[in-house]
Amino acid sequence: MTRSKKKQKDLESALMTRKTGRMGDIVARFFRNKLGMLGLTIIVVLLILVILAPLFTKYPYYEQSFKDRFVAPCWEHPLGTDNFGRDLWSRMLYGGRISLLVSVCALLMSNIVGIIIGAICGYFGGIVDNVISRVLDVLMSIPGMLLAIAAAAALGTGPVKTAIAIAITGMPFGARIMRSSVLSIKGNEFVEAARATGSSQLRVILKHILPNTLAPIIVNATMNIGSNIMAISGLSFVGLGVQAPTPEWGSILSAGREFLRDFPPIVIFPAVFIGLTLFGFNILGDALRDALDPRLKD
Amino acid sequence: MGEILRVENLKKYFDTPAGSLHAVDDVSFSINKGETLGVVGESGCGKSTLGRTVLKLLDQTDGRIYFQGRDITNISKRENRELRKDMQIIFQDPFSSLNPRFCVSDLIADPLKTFTRMSKRDLQEKVFEMMDLVGLSRRYAFSYPHELDGGRRQRIGIARALILEPKFIVCDEPVSALDVSIQAQILNLLQDLQVEKDLTYIFVTHDLSVVKHISTDILVMYIGVMVEKSKAKELFEHPLHPYTKGLLSAIPVPNIHHEKVRVKLTGELSSPINPPNACRFVKRCPYATEICRHEQPQYEEIMPNHFVACHNCRKINNL
Lengths: 298, 319
Prior knowledge:
The complex is a heterodimer of chains A (298) and B (319). Chain A has a single domain, classed as MetI-like (MetI-like fold, Orthogonal Bundle). Chain A contains eleven helices and no strands. Chain A is flat and about 85 Å long. By secondary structure, chain B is α/β, with parallel strands linked by helices. Chain B has eleven helices and twelve strands. In chain B, strands 6-7-8-3-9-10-12-11 form an eight-stranded mixed sheet, with helices on both faces. Chain B has a four-stranded antiparallel sheet with strand order 2-1-4-5. In chain B, strand 1 and strand 2 form a beta hairpin. In chain B, helix 3 crosses helix 4, helix 3 packs parallel to helix 5 and helix 4 crosses helix 5. The model of chain B has no long low-confidence stretch (mean pLDDT 89).
């Protein structure tokens, strides 16, 4: 009697543990990571500033004032003004809208498509892999900027289209990384065990292979944020990204380059914003990767 | 004690750039319910491939497989999936055979999740039942495999294989990655489970003392072909094939007064790729004659229930 009672108790407590489940474990591990929390804070603060830009700015980002050109950071203009006398703080916050939206969208698109294509190549191998890999090789052999320009020219302008153009350049790299991860995981006996116990191929890929391949994908993805932001400015430069006077960090940075010697703030501040974004996403990505891996528990 | 599995002239060839690799070549045997067939041979002789082909995890090149009287040689994907409930496999490496991202409960429950829709409570109850069965303490239910030692990991592998209540299990070197003391525990566990659940095993191993301990029958393989098969006791007492003699004489005997008569095998393994029509063992056989070089020996019943593939078997053994 007591024995069966004890078993009942075991079961109850297990079910309680179960309730929070693996997802709960991951979330708990994630929030325990201090560096990750710093990253999250940076990203959240940036997002709040950018989304609620009208609340935090005094001047519209497009208002020019020729008597206030190159004003050093002061109370009136926290980050100073640019060569047209536009308030840099306003331009930073409004510019973040395009930069963050487009770069994150591009990142998600390129990696989701890359993961799917890479997983197919790595898992099925053979002729499928060969054909797709050669197409990816062709895409990778074209310089990124050129490919983005071609894609943007074909698609037209607008944030989503720009994001797609940038995603196309990043996708082959994500797919390549995914493919090699899948190849290395596929050889493990637990994949064979999953098949031997009746898992369908889709289940094997989604539950057994994919979770074990995410680490390099996440690192690659977070590193790409910075280059994506710069790619937007590159497209804008040839008139295929965002149109002036819509601000955007990369464009402000490259437009300010000629004033670097005389008025550094115009370059420093966009660089700081891009850097903070990159840093924030990077440590956030690392924390996510660690949280997803039960082997790195504490 | 009916026959549960019969394999006839099973062949499994792999295409390699160098040619056709004969991993399993013309292997036939049958196993009765509740018995254990030990498959021994050195690395690369096709033991594991044999196990996987019998389970239909690999498609055979030729031959027939009958399971519980039914021909499963050419079954559909769907039937193959159903077959998983009856045939399972225990893997060699308890480190790579468990998904590192799954906790013990999830690992054991995984096969059940693919076949049934059970409530969390029933699933957990079943998992606990299996953990009790294989001697894994319930407190490890939410541990991850990297936190456990090899023996416990292997118990997870066994629980996972047993949760679907199969009748037939291929044990692919289940103890060769473990310490000797743990080996004994796992072997005893496998034997207890066999009696309790009326299981039939194919026990693949290169360790002769293990196979002696657990097998009813023993099948000796050499580069894809079967060279000798008999009851376990008979094989250890009267090995007939020169290769088996060599293998058996290599077992260390824990007795300092025991004078060893080693049958040394020299030379190296011949290649399994496009093997010529000759005895596969000819290059290392001390008794090789002309016929061995030109003809593959037939598999004969030299003594009751004792099969050997050797041209000179009778001469060597004075039969």
